[in-house]
């Protein structure tokens, strides 16, 4: 569905943000991209929907080369993006106006636009706020509206760029739950984060460093290595605790719990 071949991206000063990346992403995959700030993960994401153009190499989405500027609208309709700061996506006076903007640009009839807005709002649990102004919403609500604006375009691929980094813990869990539901419904998810505890949702993890993909595989396998400090990441407290319990022989070493629920389940199995 997404094919990236020898992708490099250079800044005007000549420094590299991406270095010869080759990557294929299949339809329906949930791919997480992690790494420290400045590793190139957000830059990679922006190449997938044509916000940035390769300095070298190519990116194709459903067979369409992102360098074909005449096809950018089609690409962005297929691969839509939710940004870290939802405020940057708001353009309407009301929530309804904001969500309707994308479908209106597609030239859809008003009845279809209203249908899409209603479905999108219901999908994110924001129907009651249809006529609110975005500035009256909480951070979590704003991010849900930003997601609804994307859903109204009915994309096959959704790109998430650190969408939980500005949210409180409750709003973060709400957003992650919505993303999980979208994946279960068949949407291809590409999720950028620097929070390792969120990676367990994905079925594939790309670890980036200095513009390169250093690891590509099963999140559990990679995170287990990260928890040892071998990649320079600080593991989340829940993983550190799990590792200490494994090292102490309290829980089995064959399955390292990576979330609170998994750790509780492992503890409950103790005899």
From TrEMBL:
Compartment(s) of residence: Cell membrane
Bilayer topology: Peripheral membrane protein
SUPFAM superfamilies in the cross-refs: P-loop containing nucleoside triphosphate hydrolases
One Pfam family it belongs to: ABC_tran
Signal peptide: none
GO molecular function terms listed in the Swiss-Prot or TrEMBL record: ATP binding; ATP hydrolysis activity; ATPase-coupled transmembrane transporter activity
Record's keyword annotation contains Transferase: no
Transmembrane portions of the chain: none
First-listed, main subcellular location of the protein, grouped into a coarse class: membrane
UniProt KW Transferase keyword: no
Keywords of the record: ATP-binding, Cell membrane, Membrane, Nucleotide-binding, Translocase, Transport
The ABC transporter domain, residue ranges: 2-235
Function field: Probably part of an ABC transporter complex. Responsible for energy coupling to the transport system.
Family the UniProt entry places it in: Belongs to the ABC transporter superfamily.
NCBIfam families associated with the record: ECF_ATPase_1
Protein name: Energy-coupling factor transporter ATPase
Organismal lineage: Archaea, Methanobacteriati, Methanobacteriota, Stenosarchaea group, Methanomicrobia
């Amino acid at each position: 569905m997404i094919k990236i071949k020898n992708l490099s991206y250079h800044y005007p000063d000549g420094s590299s943000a991406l270095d010869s990346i080759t990557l294929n992403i299949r339809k329906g995959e949930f791919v997480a991209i992690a790494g420290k700030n400045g590793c190139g993960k957000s830059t990679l994401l922006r190449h997938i929907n044509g916000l940035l153009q390769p300095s070298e190499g190519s990116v194709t989405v459903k067979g369409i080369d992102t360098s074909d500027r005449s096809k950018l609208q089609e690409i962005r309709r297929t691969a839509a993006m939710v940004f870290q700061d939802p405020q940057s996506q708001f353009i309407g006076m009301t929530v309804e106006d904001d969500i309707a903007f994308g479908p209106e640009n597609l030239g859809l009839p008003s009845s279809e636009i209203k249908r899409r807005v209603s479905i999108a709002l219901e999908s994110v649990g924001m129907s009651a706020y249809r006529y609110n102004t975005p500035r009256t919403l909480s951070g979590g609500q704003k991010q849900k509206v930003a997601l609804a604006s994307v859903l109204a375009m009915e994309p096959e691929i959704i790109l998430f760029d650190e969408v939980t980094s500005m949210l409180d813990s409750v709003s973060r869990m709400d957003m992650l739950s919505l993303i999980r539901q979208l994946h279960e419904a068949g949407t291809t998810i590409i999720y950028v984060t620097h929070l390792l505890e969120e990676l367990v949702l994905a079925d594939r993890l790309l670890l980036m460093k200095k513009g390169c993909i250093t690891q590509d595989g099963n999140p559990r396998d990679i995170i287990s290595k990260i928890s040892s400090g071998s990649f320079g990441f600080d593991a989340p407290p829940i993983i550190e605790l799990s590792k200490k319990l494994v090292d102490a022989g309290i829980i089995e070493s064959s399955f390292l719990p990576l979330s609170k629920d998994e750790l509780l389940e492992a503890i409950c199995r103790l005899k």
